[in-house]
């Protein structure tokens, strides 16, 4: 083993979580040579052979620092003369592995380098249900993570060595090998849909591919669609002009009102996809109830939105802004805090509400456009079912019988359910088909609607 690993070797440590690379700074030294696992049954049990090698890899805490550690190589075999396969070792020199390991580390290094400051990414989580989108969206921004979690930064085992020089860290060009191969295997990202920070495997990070067709699938009057598109496009174009002064009142605020499942959230999602901007979801009930708490949370939200270039979506604003909450002593203060924040934000803000109540005049004066979403008509439901079938066919082309489903569009459209219920029914039907190892067809969807919503759909 002493000649197996050389100083300067890139070592690959393998585990169920994936591979990680280190640079050896010492040869392998023996620790345990031939100790039996169970001394009472020495003859039957294999023996443990263990070596240690000093090495380092990069750790990221806003800067790239060398993390110095000791790797242990353990082998179970009956004798020192036994020939073994290197795949039985947890730590192996990269030079002895096939080309795909080198490519994994190179790709990881380049991806991490793009994420070391701030980057909006798509993430393919193999454990997540990604039925209707290519991948979950995250904003990788370590400084924002540190600001939000100052006391919860990881403290890995090992000693920190030197920091990567700033002149290297600040350049767009990734470092040369072997440094490129030693980049961290994880980053932290903010999930804009759930407002949660999560650890992401760098190997599963991909570029965001904007779904420009999403706006075409938006079911609403053509004039409204053109108006939304023109307002959003004009506002974003102004951000790129240097002759436009950005003072208070220059933002775009839209209010979307209607019952659940009528298309309000999808309008915001489609507009963000068409604009090529992140959509930052905020549920107003998560902002707090007391004015001081709301003010602090809004400051964080608007700061992130500005830094990330995101469109803000405040859902269910009626929970604390509607006039029918006038008996609440904090209501006026909440309205004041919220409208003041809107006034000084120069980006795009979309508000949604399921309430039919009136809103404060101070809030409505900042709304550029208000749209009411009536319950879906049969024709709109038919269009919505069709759009979902198309998206499912793109996602799982061999797992869905599209022709079979399209033949029953009129039958599905008769069910007076909203867009959210349609989506939930399709998710249940898809899971039922997968469980039975079958293609998704009419019978799966019929059963899903019957069991979850009580509608008996007949062919």
From TrEMBL:
This is AAA family ATPase. It comes from the Eukaryota. InterPro entries: AAA+_ATPase, AAA_lid_fung, ATPase_AAA_core, P-loop_NTPase. One of its GO terms (molecular function) is ATP binding. Pfam families: AAA (PF00004), AAA_lid_13 (PF23232). Residues 250-377 form the AAA+ ATPase domain. Gene3D superfamilies: P-loop containing nucleotide triphosphate hydrolases (3.40.50.300).
């Amino acid at each position: 083993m002493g000649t197996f690993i050389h100083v300067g070797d890139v070592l690959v440590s393998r585990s169920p979580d994936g591979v990680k690379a280190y640079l050896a700074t010492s040869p392998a030294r023996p620790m345990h040579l031939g100790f039996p696992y169970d001394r009472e049954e020495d003859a039957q049990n294999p023996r443990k052979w263990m070596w240690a090698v000093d090495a380092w890899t990069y750790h990221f805490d806003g800067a790239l620092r060398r993390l110095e550690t000791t790797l242990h190589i353990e082998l179970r075999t009956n004798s020192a003369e036994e020939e073994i396969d290197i795949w039985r070792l947890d730590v192996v020199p990269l030079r002895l592995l096939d080309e795909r390991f080198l490519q994994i580390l190179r790709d990881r290094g380049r991806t991490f380098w793009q994420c070391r400051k701030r980057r909006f990414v798509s993430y393919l989580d193999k454990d997540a249900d990604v039925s209707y989108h290519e991948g979950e969206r995250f904003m990788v921004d370590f400084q924002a993570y540190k600001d939000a979690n100052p006391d919860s930064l990881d403290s890995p085992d090992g000693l920190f060595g030197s920091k990567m020089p700033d002149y290297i860290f600040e350049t767009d060009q990734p470092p040369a090998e072997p440094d490129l191969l030693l980049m961290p295997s994880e980053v932290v990202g903010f999930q804009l849909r759930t407002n949660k920070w999560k650890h992401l495997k760098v190997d599963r990070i991909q570029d965001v591919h904007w779904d420009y067709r999403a706006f075409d699938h938006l079911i609403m009057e053509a004039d409204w669609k053109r108006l939304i598109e023109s307002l959003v496009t004009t506002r974003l174009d102004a951000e790129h002009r240097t002759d436009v002064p950005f003072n208070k009142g220059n933002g775009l605020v839209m209010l979307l009102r209607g019952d659940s499942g009528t298309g309000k959230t999808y309008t915001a999602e489609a507009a963000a996809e068409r604009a090529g901007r992140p959509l930052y979801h905020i549920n107003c009930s998560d902002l707090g109830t007391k004015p001081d708490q709301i003010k602090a949370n809004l400051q964080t939200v608007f700061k992130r939105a500005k830094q990330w270039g995101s469109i803000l979506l405040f859902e269910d604003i009626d929970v604390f802004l509607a006039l029918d909450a006038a008996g609440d002593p904090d209501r006026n203060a909440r309205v004041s805090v919220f409208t003041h924040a809107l006034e000084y934000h120069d980006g795009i803000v979309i508000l949604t509400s399921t309430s039919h109540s009136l809103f404060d005049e101070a809030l409505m004066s900042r709304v550029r456009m208000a749209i009411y979403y009536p319950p879906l008509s049969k024709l709109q439901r038919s269009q919505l079912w069709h759009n979902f079938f198309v998206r499912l066919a793109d996602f799982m082309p061999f797992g869905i019988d599209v022709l079979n489903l399209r033949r029953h569009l009129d039958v599905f459209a008769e069910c007076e359910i909203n867009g959210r219920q349609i989506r939930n029914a399709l998710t249940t039907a898809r899971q039922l088909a997968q469980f039975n190892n079958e293609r998704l067809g009419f019978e799966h969807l019929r059963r899903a609607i019957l069991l979850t919503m009580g509608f008996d759909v007949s062919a």
